[in-house]
Design brief:
The complex is a heterodimer of chains A (273) and B (358). Helices cover 36% and strands 24% of the residues of chain A. Chain A is α/β, with parallel strands linked by helices and 273 residues long. With 358 residues, chain B is an all-alpha fold. The chains are: A alpha/beta (273), B mainly alpha (358).
Chain lengths: 273, 358
């Protein structure tokens, strides 16, 4: 592994990666007798694109669900921004600035694209019920200010033309993009992407890859993603965690991981004798 | 031809997120308001107010309230009748306990009290959903009616067990009681309807409404983007019950004047308001008005044509009315499950392109 100081490191293409934002220490997650995650530790650094890969059933999504507060691990600690994180509900995690997308899209079908993306601004909009009821003062001001931020995200992801369309009418690829927009609108400190390219054709994958890189580049957003397309993962990410059967079998730059014997065995299979 | 947004450019986000973005819509809205406030009070008589206008206005408030809960937040409630009863008894107790305070304030306070009761009965929604929640709210309906029947304190120990509204005035004009002029009762209710509609619209186009709709469409995703489900659901119950309470207070104090709780605020009332919301259109303020108008006007219309026009016996007409209204509801749900509001939207879409649809 490259020289990795506590302050961070510099990637090959010259991006500065900062210190550790989130650190998972010895996480274990069990569902009854089934062990989903076993003693996994890894960290996510400021500004990097961190991938979690592994064969089906390796526990990748469970890992993401642990980070976003859906599952509470039986053992282990999560350190976020230098503090030990107590067990939290998902909405509290979101309030801390961790946004995510889902493997199978979780948009609000009955609302327009604009409203969907606006929901991403919940953390920033604090006007009370009474202020909203009369639509004056803080409520109106917040609405306009946050709309401006949302419009920037809409612009960035090139979905201006469908701004007022109900989400239920959109094709799959666009829905994925709207979901990314909603997560981005939150201006998260960590963005979790659960298979952002699942079910897409090559062209849509290229678009999505470009958006992910641009987001990281322009906003400096820290991204942790799960993806099955190896080509995409190796091209996009700075560091990769490889999981298999709930254990961590590799961690490092794409090149290191590619040459790791355990990883090759996990993906290609190995003769047990 | 006049109904289109071409040439009507929005230059600010405030303009773009207003209630009626299309200019023609806006003018029509002002026109309706002017007619409602400045023309109708001068031309109405007792029959129109009591048979058509008051029920329409008061049910509209109830329908808006229920629509916020069912249509926007996705929490099915069958307790509307019970919550209307809370509003009615609250306003009765306030009117008799503090006669010197304006009835206007009493009605609003009654809404507030109902909001509190609504939150209490909304607590199960944190654990249960859908039909099960509907059954839990049904318990609220029966419990509240039972409570108002059984505890004499609520009806001030009157011998009949009924509550009847004493005369109260605003600026010297009687609003409740036998001396009320039709126009005064009408205007009093109209003010509440307009205020409620504007508040409901503001809430639903802002962040509160987005939170409710997020819970309705996918509660897990709502939680993951930071919606606190407890607060969102309970605020929906509170706002919804506030409106329903106001409508109950008006229904008792201004419209009926005297109420026997089991008869007026029974389960039938819950269903009636729910039908209004479903027929009008879930998740639409306009739909609440349309549904209320439909279910208030249709029986009046049928009665007038069958009894007045064709000269049929009253009991026959009354039974036919049940069958026709029932059949219409079924037909409606099959043909247009999104209600009158959807029909209206489709009509407007067509109108935007008229007369050159291609």
């Amino acid at each position: 592994m490259k020289d990795m100081t506590p302050e961070g490191y510099t990637t090959e293409d010259g991006r500065k990666i900062g210190g550790v934002v989130m650190e998972m220490k010895n996480i274990s997650l069990r569902f009854g007798g089934v062990v989903a995650i076993k003693d996994i530790s890894f960290d996510i650094r400021q500004g990097e694109i961190r991938a979690i890969i592994g064969p089906n059933g390796a526990g990748k999504s469970s890992m993401l669900n642990v980070i976003s507060g859906f599952y509470h691990p039986q053992e282990g600690e999560i350190w976020y921004q230098g503090k030990l994180r107590p067990p939290m509900k998902p909405y509290e995690v979101a309030q801390q600035g961790i946004a995510r997308t889902f493997q199978n899209i979780a948009l609000f079908e009955g609302m327009t694209v604009l409203d969907n993306v606006m929901t991403g601004r919940i953390r920033q909009m604090k006007a009370g019920l009474f202020a909203q009821a009369i639509w004056k003062g803080k409520a109106e001001r917040e609405e306009v200010e946050n709309r401006a931020v949302v419009e920037k995200v809409i612009d960035f992801l090139e979905i201006q033309h469908i701004r007022k369309t109900p989400v239920s009418r959109l094709p799959y690829g666009l829905k994925k993009r709207v979901e990314l927009a909603r997560a981005l609108a939150a201006e998260p400190s960590i963005l979790l992407l659960d298979e952002p390219m699942a079910g897409m054709n090559v062209e849509e994958k290229e678009d999505m890859s470009r958006f992910i890189l641009d987001v990281n580049d322009e906003f400096g957003t820290t991204i942790a993603l799960i993806e099955h397309d190896m080509g995409v993962v190796m091209d996009l990410s700075d560091r990769v965690v490889v999981m298999d059967y709930g254990r961590k079998i590799g961690d490092g730059t794409p090149d290191e991981v590619r040459n790791n014997q355990d990883v090759i065995d996990a993906y290609l299979g190995v003769a047990h004798d | 031809m006049f109904y289109r947004e071409a040439g009507d450019f929005k230059t600010s986000y405030t303009d773009d997120s207003q209630t009626f973005p299309i200019r023609f819509d806006r003018y029509r809205y002002y026109a309706v308001l002017i007619v409602a406030f400045a023309v109708i009070p001068f031309v109405i008589n007792d029959y129109w107010v009591n048979a058509v206008l008051l029920p329409f206005l008061i049910y509209s408030i109830a329908a808006i309230g229920l629509n916020i809960l069912v249509g926007y937040c996705g929490q099915v409630s069958l307790g509307t009748g019970g919550f209307m009863a809370v509003g009615a008894y609250a306003v009765y107790k306030l009117m008799t306990a503090f006669p010197e305070i304006s009835i206007f304030i009493h009605v609003i306070l009654a809404g507030g009290i109902t909001a509190g009761v609504g939150v209490l009965f909304g607590l199960p929604s944190l654990r249960i959903k859908g039909f099960y929640l509907a059954v839990a709210t049904l318990a609220a309906q029966f419990f509240l009616v039972w409570l108002f029947n059984r505890v004499p304190w609520f009806y001030n120990y009157s011998a009949s067990g009924q509550i009847s509204a004493p005369e109260r005035t605003i600026l010297g004009v009687p609003i409740t009681g036998a001396q009320t002029a039709p126009w005064a009762a009408y205007l009093f209710c109209l003010v509440f309807v307009v205020a409620c509609a504007i508040i409901a619209r503001n809430l639903t186009r802002g962040m509160a409404g987005r939170k409710w709709m997020a819970i309705r469409d996918m509660d897990i995703a709502a939680e993951i983007i930071g919606v606190n489900p407890l607060k969102a659901k309970l605020s929906a119950f509170a706002v919804s019950s506030f409106f329903v309470g106001i409508s109950g207070a008006l229904f008792f104090a201004v419209y009926l004047g005297a109420v026997e709780v089991g008869e007026v605020f029974g389960i039938n009332k819950s269903f009636l308001v729910l039908f209004m919301v479903i027929i009008g259109g879930l998740g639409s303020i306009f739909g609440s008005f349309a549904g209320a108008a439909f279910l208030v006007l249709l029986p009046v219309l049928l009665k007038n044509t069958l009894v007045g026009g064709l000269g049929w016996p009253t009991d026959l007409a009354a039974h036919l009315e049940f069958m026709i209204v029932g059949a219409l509801i079924v037909i409606f749900l099959i043909a247009e499950p999104h209600g009158l509001a959807q029909l209206w939207r489709v009509a407007k879409e067509k109108l935007r392109l008229w007369p050159f649809p291609h």
